[in-house]
TrEMBL record:
It comes from Hydrogenophaga bisanensis. This is Heme NO-binding domain-containing protein. Residues 2-161 form the Heme NO-binding domain. The lineage of its organism: Bacteria, Pseudomonadati, Pseudomonadota, Betaproteobacteria, Burkholderiales. It comes from the Bacteria. Gene3D superfamilies: H-NOX domain.
Length: 181
């Protein structure tokens, strides 16, 4: 997983909890990297899972809630760190419909070793977008947080529903977004 995700996570923990909490979760998670993340580095995805799990234990907040809150925070950070992805964009549904072929495709050019999820567009019209999320890392709560963060960013009235999709051994989640005029 890209270092930028780790550095943003650590900053969020520091801001919302404390620097002490950062040290405590690094110690509790016993991550091989020792917690010295740089934005340009790449670290095992398991380290993120270990850190979020440690934060959940220490803070008493459920793991899914933490992943969701992190995703919601992360979108705002991504919009600042990579302004060219959001510049000139005004429509939440149109932006999110391009997550696979435009946004993450560009991310892959920046970081050829990025491990990105898949977002297939199952339906798209002016008021409704259906996205299907699939990832070997399976972090639908993070995805929902990023979607909600994106909705916050564009400030339109959009609601999201998420439902697990039963398709055998590959877990996926369907996100249905509705825009209210
Ligand atoms: C400006 C917008 C965005 C940028 C620059 C961006 C960039 C990235 C980067 C750098 C990663 C880490 C890849 C790795 O660790 O190897 C990532 C992961 C991820 N992104 Fe995005 N992203 C953006 C918007 C979104 C949005 C709106 C969603 C949700 C629809 C999303 C869903 C995800 C998810 C769920 C992951 C975690 C990896 C996984 O599930 O396999 N991203 N993204």
């Amino acid at each position: 997983m890209k270092g930028v995700v780790f550095t943003e996570f650590m900053e969020m923990v520091e801001d919302h909890f404390s620097l002490r909490m950062v040290d405590e979760i690094i110690e509790e998670a016993a991550v091989p990297s020792g917690g010295a993340y740089t934005a340009v580095g790449t670290y095992p995805h398991e380290e993120m899972v270990a850190l979020v799990t440690a934060l959940s234990r220490r803070s008493g907040m459920p793991l899914p809630d933490l992943l969701y809150a992190f995703g919601r925070h992360l979108f705002g950070r991504f919009a600042r760190l990579y302004p060219r992805f959001v510049e000139g964009q005004t429509d939440t549904l149109r932006f999110l419909a391009g997550i696979e072929d435009i946004i993450h495709a560009e991310v892959l050019k920046l970081y050829p070793d990025a491990q990105l999820p898949r977002f297939d567009v199952e339906h798209q019209d002016e008021h409704r977008l259906v996205l299907v999320y699939r990832s070997p890392r399976h972090m639908p709560e993070l995805a929902l947080g990023l979607i909600e963060g994106c909705i916050d960013h564009f400030g339109q009235s959009v609601t999201v529903r998420s439902n697990p999709v039963d398709n055998g051994d590959q877990r996926s989640v369907r996100f249905e977004l509705l825009r209210h005029a």
